[in-house]
Amino acid sequence: MNDTFKYGDACESGDDKYVVAQFRSDASMAWVPDLRSFLNLAELKYRDFHPRRHQVMSNAEMWAKFEKGVQQAEITIVDPLYYKQAVLGDWLDQKAEPGIDFDLKMVNDSAGESMLQMSPLGIAEATSIDFYYQHVAFDETTGRFSPEAEFQDFSAPTIKRRAGGRLKDATVLAARSHAMLSPSERLEVIAICNHSSSTEYGTRCALLAKMCRIFDVDHPGSVPILNEFSERLTHAAGVGNVASILRGSSTMVSEEKSHSIDHIQAADMAAGWAVDLLIFSHGDYVELAKRFAWVGVNGVVVPG
Considering the entire predicted model, what is its pTM? Predict the structure, then answer.
């Protein structure tokens, strides 16, 4: 597997932010079994670590290992409040009246669709992908595109419904897509999808391979959508399909239980730690960015 393959897990903050933490496959994980052994736990989870954190702090060597370990994480945050405020502001500017012209469900539905449209999943409208797929559609049973398969509308309302229909479902799906493509990678992908012939084949494969993810089991409904998105991009980039750029896997995105995967246990720890740091810093993203390898919020990189 390539060195940029990443593992992720997530944690929700008390104010509905969805925080995804990721570790590259080549990140140092020695601290995970050490901390697991120190706390005498079968599996490392932040919910178990948090009430015993002072015990870890009392051991300077163990605490240093923990801090150095979690700082390797890349943090991706989606804040639904930003999208709800934008929807409300737009409707109020149009003189719409709450309780008459719209209600909370309408706000949440529109916010979720806007969130997905502004995420990397909205790339389809910025590339030639839709033209390619007018007659070739994704078959979820095979994980491949087939002319015989029923065409799948990939618009924001449709993928929100397919993910589960709730604002929470849209938030998880958007956050995972942001985690798969940084803002700069998103621009690169758009460029190669629109002008694939001008980019070397190996370069295209290397960029798309960076999207490989194994998430903890948390939201199975998002997985086929993210894999369809990956397939759409690989075809539009002239690569063929996901299997042609991966080794040992036929899909770009999967979920696996964390009990035997140190990287996912580390991601759980980093996500929980990030939420606590947000609380302690009163939501200061810049302060958060100083403590991790990378922080992005709603698709915008936070300077550290």
Answer: 0.91
